[in-house]
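Task: fold both queries, return tokens.
Query 1:
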Amino acid sequence: MKKYIIYIGILAVGFLFGWVLSGNTSNEETANNPAEMAETNQMWTCSMHPQIMQPEPGDCPICGMDLIPAETSAMGLAADQFKLTENAMALANIQTAVVSEGANRNTEVKLSGTIVENEEANAVQVSYFSGRIEKLNINFTGEKVQKGQLLATVYSPELYAAQQELITAVSLKEIQPALYNAVRNKLKLWKLSDTQINQIENTKKVQENVPIYATFTGTVSEKLVAQGDYIKEGQALLKIANLNTVWANFDVYENQIDLFKKGQEISITTHSNLNKTFKTKVDFIDPVLNANTRTVKLRAVLNNSDQVFKPGMFVEGVVKRTQVLEMKKVLKIPASAVLWTGERSVVYLKTNPDQPVFEMHEVVLANQIGNEYEVIEGLNLGDEIVTNGAFTVDAAAQLQGKKSMMNKDGGKVMTGHEGHMGMVETMTNRDNPTILNERIEVSKAFQNQLKKVFERYIHLKDDLVNDDSEAVIKNALLVLDDLTEIDMKILKDKKSLALWTYLEKELKNATTSISNSTDIKVQRSQFKLLSSYLTSAIEHFGVNKKIYQQYCPMADNNKGAYWLSIKETVVNPYFGQAMLKCGDVKQVIE
């Protein structure tokens, strides 16, 4: 019996220990399992749309991607710092680089400009007497004229009377030579030649219609009158430009002015002849700064006897820096790292080398040398900054209520439906979640220029639908031309200017990539980016046209892709004839 009592006691003690251990384990599992806790703080977000915050897993309401666990704590981060997920970093292709130091030495400075008429060689053909234009021999602008060429014939009552006076004065020439000379000189003042005057004297006939001859050689740049018009003495008839020499005007930014001097050699290339370089010298630097653009005009004179340069043509100039500071070292950063607001220049600093933690820093820049800026203030040697995807990082800062390009003091964090609606009620593209969808008021002139780009984009889209890669290249080049013709000076407020500066760069990058490839798969991949940024531009600035945004979930290896159309019927540019009807309309942009 004692033996059994001992066995029973051992079993009881064992059960007691087992119960205690199992209870603790259960408590630990419950504590470590948020799904079984009575209360949990776990939130779920989208790697591409961090403004989305939901208390349970599911799909992103914007792009449909699976939600991932959000960071539950921001412990260890300063007030202006924020963190991105590794997945978001990869998808947005965010790249960083360490701030370097280099010698401030001679190097090249690139400038953009346009060809204009040489004002010193321009002339205005005027009438030296009043009358009515009976016949105008110049038919169109751009017509070439030679000195002495007949331009028009004019009926002039004054000249008619003066010719009669001359015929009368000829008969009194011997008696009243002074009167004869006075009448003859009056006709000379009206620019009648000695030959014309002698003809009137010899024939004793009055010319009803008096010819006007060109006093300059050149090209008609503007017609100021029409046949049948009444003109006054001294009135301008034609503007004539001598295009044997032209001016190349370049914009020099305020912080670059001290790099240029009159007499510097400048090498000029044109978009129409990229393989040829034209060398000339800086002829003039405008002493007055344009207060709107913060630039001055730099001018070079070009020989144009071969008519290579056309007024209005875009050109690029390269000037060697003359300012040398041998002993001074300067910090340099890539131009792609800088975001502009109009008043401030900002970059994003990666504050933790091991984690994707960022913070906005304002910087003071000096000169732009090639694709780099010299930094005066705001960064230190060895700082790691974002060089690609800075706008994406800035959007994340805005969404998390941190200091950003447009909000230097930070703001409210948007979560859930509020964040969704605040970011985009109608999102452009899940690969471009960076731009807030808010209509900006701009001029109709700017909208019409943007509309021209959109219309060319539609042709490019149709080429992809037809699987025609060669036509895609041609229309991509035309899209680039239309983008280049958009006049940024029309945009008056800083917000629209900063936004368009960013969008224009991305649009040109995507379009250039399309034009540089003959592989239609590559063209379609870049077309996705082109569609994304063009949609953002249209949503912000408008083009006064009804546009359908369409989406195919199977495009881009089942990642999905958007495009724009002027028709509601879906024709898929990502699959072309292979799967023409795949997709549906996601939104209508009015």
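Query 1 returned. Query 2:
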Amino acid sequence: MSPNDTQSLTVGVTPRSLVFPLLAAIWFAGLVAANGFSHQYFVDASVRGISPTRAIADQVGPSLAARGVEPGDILDVGALSTAERFRANGMTQKGRDVRIEVIHKGSPRMIQAPAVRLFHAIPLWDKILAITTGAFALSLLAFVGYRKPSSQVAFLIFFVGGALLSWPGLVSYFASLPDAPFVLIAYVMRTLCTSLPVMLLASFAIRFGADDSPRRRRVIRVVDAAVAIWFLTDGLLIARGLVRIQFVLAAAFLLISACISLALAKPAERGRVSLVFVGIMIGGVGYALAMLGNTFGMGGITLYLYASISVIVIPLALAYAILRYRVFDITFVLNRALVYATTSALLLVVFAALEFVTEKYLTRLTHVEGALVEFTIATAVIILARIIHTRVDKLIDTVIFRTRHQQEAALRRFATTLQFYTEQRPLVRETAEILQRCGSVTGVAIYLTHAGTLELAASTWMETSEAIEENDFAYVELRAHRQTLELHGLNTAFPGAWLYPMMLCGRLVGAVAVGERQGYEQMPPDIDQAIARVAESVAISIAAIETDTIRQENALLQQRLSTIASTS
């Protein structure tokens, strides 16, 4: 990887980037606290539910028996305040007194009893699944957010954290607070951990894609407004027991948002957006429907497992964004992984075969002879490791990077061909077309210096700025550093994603702007160097053409002067 590549990886890493790892760490800490260490405690009775707020006590523990509660009595939380109802439903610490209404033979009375019976303990497999899933997904999102901060990553962090976190367990830590702040925390956590994650995923979906048209911005404002209204009114739906309607509306809203995002996607990015669309259908809409099924008592552990694992799908679908944001070259990583995995496997086979032969046929060797054989085997493995690694590296590199090597070879061949052009216009026209085709980019524009500005000499885009004024930010950066410049996030009139300087004798004589790679993958280092080589060759060839033109004009002028002198 060249120094320019290393520099491009650090673009966008600012102090603001630290917010995303911190946000992910906070959610993970809450996930561990709620799912790993919290418990829900109820009054000491074995109950059987008969309505959303009432249950019959089948068995009564000593603490309730001492208060006159008998088997068959009805325990009712419907008449309690919201805070009391939350505490009576397990959102409290062990041993804390909670209020509950007891109906004995039709006569209701209010009692206070300690919450001592562990109810609905989170199984160990559940804890491990939620914490492991959260660690993987949140770590990936923290890394992407650190490299390329955006509101989209924040939405996904809230989605993953909220979808996995057991909100009653977390709220139980705040049971000792006064009623008002306790209820506020309970409602906020309830909202953040149920239907709101799906709604936030809708905000993520509608922002997905490179289209930044006024139409998409209007849709984004509408979706964000709907999410904000949902957050403010979610407590009313909870209070009225409309949980199922919550999940239906959330799933429908996410589906509509994702479909609109897919419809607004540009043709060049339709494949990437489709990939994330499928991820949203599985991980987002599927999650909402799984939670809806859970309210009907359908599926049990199967639905819960799906809901837990589905939250991984979205971060994995976001892996495509790592390509787009150029965090690292996925193809290169795949190449290295295959090379070392294959080399290691072959070496293990060779080593095992040599050991087998030694043990089977050389068992009568002395200690010294055995040590010598072992040394010979180790030496052979070391030598073979280098040979096998070289052969495997070449083979896998040929298979995976065949097209890339062909593109690089074509670009470098064209860089040599450029010196044989005799006119500037066909030279820049052919250069733009070759760079687009062999560089596998969406477009190319070539600018040449003229009176302090850069004027367009050739372009494969339909619409391109005809001139770049000398105080354009990217142009200033190019003059100052004279290195390949990444245009993402820069306020500039240059088209495309990368800008290559055309240098001649230490002077900037032009610039080559190229668009995104097809599929929005990272610009490979070898292709990047080949394009830089072409840009350098264009500058030299244009200078040579201008020099030849001036030489021809001088020769013609001298010939005319000689003719005039001879006739006079």
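Both queries returned. Flag for query 2: The longest strand covers residues 107-118.
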